[in-house]
Amino acid sequence: MDMVNQGLVKLDDPLEKYLPANVTVPTYQGHKITLEDLITHTSGLPYYPPGWCNPSCFHNYTTQQVYQFLSNTSLATKPGVKDKYSNFGVGLLRHALSLKAGMPLDQLIKERILNVLGMNSTGIAMNATGVSVSEDIKSRFAKGHIAVNE
Fold this sequence. Notes:
Blueprint: H1 2-5, E1 27-28, E2 31-32, H2 35-39, H3 63-71, H4 87-101, H5 105-114, H6 135-138
Antiparallel strand pairs: 1-2
């Protein structure tokens, strides 16, 4: 919303406006997926592309793989009408905003939200990324949960 308020993007902008020209974003009877459709989970895109994930996995896919899936998918419903949770769609929104801002999402969030609010102990990167975290900060971490497993 910060980028919307600054006039850098509009909620009714089509997703394709922020992706490379060689990427085909699916439409439904001429209706395009907008940034608002992505954030409200009404894009018509799947939770994850078929075969990519199950509830307990955590994979990294290349940008090219994401573009390939997007370019070869179709929509069963008109965007903006029916809500259907889509991690894939939100990931595309994150990617599009990062491209528009010219910086990685974690840097964008840090500059536009965390620094502005003085949230100096908040971040996105976890230890799996090789980031070392001091013990005084670790003691304040919230416990994460996936389904019924801690």
